[in-house]
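TPM domain-containing protein
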Amino acid sequence: MNITRLLRHLATTSIGTHRAFPASALRSIEQAIAASEASHAGELRFVVEGALDTLPLLRGQTAPQRAIELFAQLHVWDTACNTGVLIYVLLADHRVEIVADRGIHAKAGAEAWSAICRGMESQFSAGEFGSGAVHGIKAVTSLLTRHFPLQPGDRNELPDAPLVL
């Protein structure tokens, strides 16, 4: 167990999470997702988590593992055309993870997702949480527009509002 990581998670409070992502930033993220989904057949979900609960933390759960867990729990995988994308932010670890449904992942590839994540992390480290999130959503939008153009009859299957855990 990494004691530094444990202390970081214990010190990350909901107040700090709401400071990083105030209501105005959450509205901007929601608007960016709505605009994004109007241009492609993908479905985006944005989740911010301040810190892991104690038990998963003690078990050594990583940000990628938690992102996959949330991808399943939030049914991001359960879209009609397998075009769900989860953008997950774990503030205590300073990590961003993107989990994409198999249909999208096969076309975009792990390198593209990693580049978007690192770009968001860079902006977050400069304290630019809202604009960093919107920038990441726009980068995901670019990939989805290229590989999954909007289809007739496409409907919004997942909430656009970001989820703060």
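thats it. The helical segments are 3-11, 14-20, 23-37, 54-58, 63-73, 102-108, 110-125, 129-147. Strands lie at 43-49, 84-90, 95-100, 163-164. bye
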